[in-house]
Inverse folding.
């Protein structure tokens, strides 16, 4: 759905908060977005962690959690685009 808005930026939480009021997600989804935002730079930059490469600083559980949160957000967006 296009409401004449331009999505700009890298923060998933900010992008969700800037949705029109009738599309704003619940607090739980905004919190999930904040979780993803915390991974944006460290997961992309090889020197973001003080000790070793990025892949050595994430656990399988953290990766699964990030994927689950991203899936929740994508599903929300898909539902909104189908509903409107």
């Amino acid at each position: 759905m296009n409401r004449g808005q331009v999505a700009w930026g890298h923060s998933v939480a900010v992008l969700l908060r800037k949705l029109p009021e009738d599309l704003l997600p619940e607090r739980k989804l905004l919190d999930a977005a904040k979780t993803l935002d915390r991974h944006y730079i460290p997961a992309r930059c090889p020197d973001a962690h003080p000790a070793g490469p990025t892949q050595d600083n994430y656990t399988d559980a953290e990766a699964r959690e990030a994927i689950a949160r991203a899936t929740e957000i994508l599903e929300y967006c898909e539902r909104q685009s189908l509903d409107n």
The helical segments are 12-17, 27-37, 40-44, 60-83. The two ends are 6 Å apart (CA to CA). The CA atoms of residues 18 and 74 lie 16 Å apart.
